[in-house]
Amino acid sequence: MKVFNEYLEIVNNAIATLKLPGQPAGLYDPIRYTMDAGGKRLRPVLALAACEAMGKDPMTAIHQAIAIEMFHNFTLLHDDVMDNADVRRGRPTVHKKWNEETAILSGDAMLTTSTMLLAIKAGDHLASALDLFNGTAMNIYEGQQLDMDFEQRLDVTVEEYMEMIRLKTSVLLGCACGMGALMADAPFETQLQFFNYGVNLGLAFQLQDDFLDTYGNPETFGKAIGGDILNDKKTWLLIMALKEDQTGKLREIIGSNINAEEKISTVREIYNTLNLPDRIHELIRAYIDTAISCLDTIELMPEARAFFIDLALKSATRDK
Amino acid sequence: MKVFNEYLEIVNNAIATLKLPGQPAGLYDPIRYTMDAGGKRLRPVLALAACEAMGKDPMTAIHQAIAIEMFHNFTLLHDDVMDNADVRRGRPTVHKKWNEETAILSGDAMLTTSTMLLAIKAGDHLASALDLFNGTAMNIYEGQQLDMDFEQRLDVTVEEYMEMIRLKTSVLLGCACGMGALMADAPFETQLQFFNYGVNLGLAFQLQDDFLDTYGNPETFGKAIGGDILNDKKTWLLIMALKEDQTGKLREIIGSNINAEEKISTVREIYNTLNLPDRIHELIRAYIDTAISCLDTIELMPEARAFFIDLALKSATRDK
In the predicted model, what is the mean pLDDT of chain B? Predict the structure, then answer.
């Protein structure tokens, strides 16, 4: 097994040497721009690590790993159009730098390219890899639709929220882990356990993201704090607070036109009163424990086991 | 072999019984709305007919045929967002009936669903079918990008235009024919000849579309005549006229604010003076002849040959 940064280097190298046509530039330049923007590369690293953990050269899964990363970047690109977001990873979004038509079309091309990458050297695993990938993609669209549906509602339950982030975010981490195991010829049961590990890791990851958006350090987190509060975004924090706040103060603030700084600090105060920062970390820890318990059923070398446990624990305590 | 309408009935029946999840409705309702809107269904019919022409039950290719039709409808859905079109097949476009986010996300889900359909019962042909399908999809995005690039230019050549419509429109007809032959276990050479037949048919088809947009009967054509002229769309007619009009009148009219009816009749007059209606039909006839000559290299039963010749000839003379 390698350490995270060694897998990361393999991934970044594969992305840097990705062969895309040059013309028409209006179609392919935004794809390169998007793929070169960096990011954690968590999904492709998971795929390579799962492949190596199952005893195969991680390069066996490199095309499938990059396929998943490209798919992930495609969803961000189209999400940014839908959310009308201006900035992604510190740079203008594609629809701001170019225009909306370009963002839609280049995103479509990224989705098709990701399927093409998935098929490269997939061999006998092509049908299974495609099933896993396409099924995951449909889950992600469903999650995005639910997320948009929730914008119109104040009565979203915690269960509905957890199902939404399972679909929108977590299954792709599960898909990455399962894909690595599949490419390493692991039995279906093992693929499934890797998938479940990834899904639980993803749930913890998203909850930590919700926490950091409200309580993070803007210097390390890399974006302004309080965006979710300002947008009345139905996160775990807001949903719990809406359910438990007896003062009626929270419902008053939502949708009101009070000053941004005041809104953030008032809502944060309500969250603190309800002890939500501690409680979200208990929940995160529970998902991390579940993720780690998925590893128990897989026959793993100690260093492979240590890699995935370490990754899970770091996700729960990350500050960026 | 069956007649066109019998294949059409098979296609429409398969689309009507397509199993899509019910929830979230915001994601799946627009897909059903789009697929139920009708249209010529030319591509799936070509796929089924090519499959039967190669001696197999046309149902062998039914999932791949519907995959191509769903892909086609996905491109129309996203094109309508990019073009900000209000009406498609006599009904409000998805982004008008719902909203733009819905149109983008449902389109993405249609693209993934089309790949899922493609894989159903593809058996040993999965890798080849996926290659053909994804390669075609990339061509179509490139064609759409060129089409958008042309909007900013007055110096588009006929060669550039023909390459654009080859990519944007024609290869998908080629893909449909080739896919039917592939699913029927036809040798690669035969798949290629079917593909070439479809591409040439597609070029003829698009040129006839250009003609009808300016010279068609609004009653039979189903949409207002002159839209291309009003939008200064770089069609074969406009590109030829820009090249050959010595009076300077055409360049004066383009981009000017003259009355719509006057613009259409003046531009049409210029086209007539240059004899473009006759000349575009000569060109269409040449592509139809090339399409038919592709059939010569394929061993076909007389009734299969007659089916594809008849379809080609009708495309050249269609009025809707």
Answer: 96
Q: Quote ipTM for the complex.
A: 0.96
Q: Residue A132: closest CA among chain B residues belongs to which residue?
A: B116
CB contact under 8 A, A78 and B24: no
Answer yes or no: are the C-beta atoms of A109 and A137 closer than 8 Å.
no
Which residues of A fall below an 8 Å CB-CB distance to B? 21, 23-24, 26-27, 78, 81-82, 100-101, 104-105, 107-109, 111-113, 115-116, 119, 122, 126-127, 130-131, 134, 137-138, 141-142, 144-146, 148-149
Give the residue with greater pLDDT, B254 vs A14. A14
Among A24, A104, A119, whose Cβ lies nearest the Cβ of B146? A24
The answer to whether residue B83 scores a pLDDT higher than 80 is yes
- Rounded to 5 degrees, φ, ψ at B92 are -60, 140
Distance from CA of A179 to the nearest CA of B (A): 17
The residue of A133, A145, A149 whose CB has the most chain B CBs within 10 angstroms, and thus the best one to mutate to test that interface, is A145
- Cβ distance B138 to A101 less than 8 Å, yes or no, reads no
Amino acid identity of residue B76, one-letter, is L
Across the interface, which of A27, A108, A141 has its CB nearest the CB of B78?
A: A108
The per-residue DSSP string of A86-139 comes to: -EETTEE-HHHHS-HHHHHHHHHHHHHHHHHHHHTT-GGGHHHHHHHHHHHHHH
**Burial of residue B163, with CB atoms counted within 10 A of its CB: 0-12 exposed, 13-18 middle, 19 or more buried:** middle
> Is B219:B90 a contact under the CB 8 Å cutoff?
no
| Tens digits of pLDDT across chain A (320 residues) | 999 999 999 999 999 999 999 999 999 999 999 999 989 999 999 999 999 999 999 999 999 999 999 999 999 999 999 999 999 988 999 999 999 999 999 999 999 999 999 999 999 999 999 999 999 999 999 999 999 999 999 999 999 999 999 999 999 999 999 999 999 999 999 999 999 999 999 999 999 999 999 999 888 877 789 999 999 999 999 999 999 999 999 999 987 889 999 999 999 999 999 999 999 999 999 999 999 999 999 999 999 999 999 999 998 888 87
Which residues on chain A are in Cβ contact (under 8 Å) with B116? 130, 134, 138
Cα angle for residues B94, B98, B104 (degrees, 5° grid): 60
Tell me how far apart the alpha carbons of residues B273 and B111 are, in angstroms, rounded to a whole number.
Answer: 44
The per-residue pLDDT for A20 is 94
At A69 the pLDDT is 98
Q: Rounded to two decimals, what is the model's pTM?
A: 0.96
Return the residue of A nearest to B112 by Cα.
Answer: A134
- Give B290→chain A minimum CA distance, Å: 28
Query: Looking at the predicted structure, is the pLDDT value of residue B285 above 80?
Result: yes
Report the gap between the CA of A294 and the closest CA in chain B (Å).
29
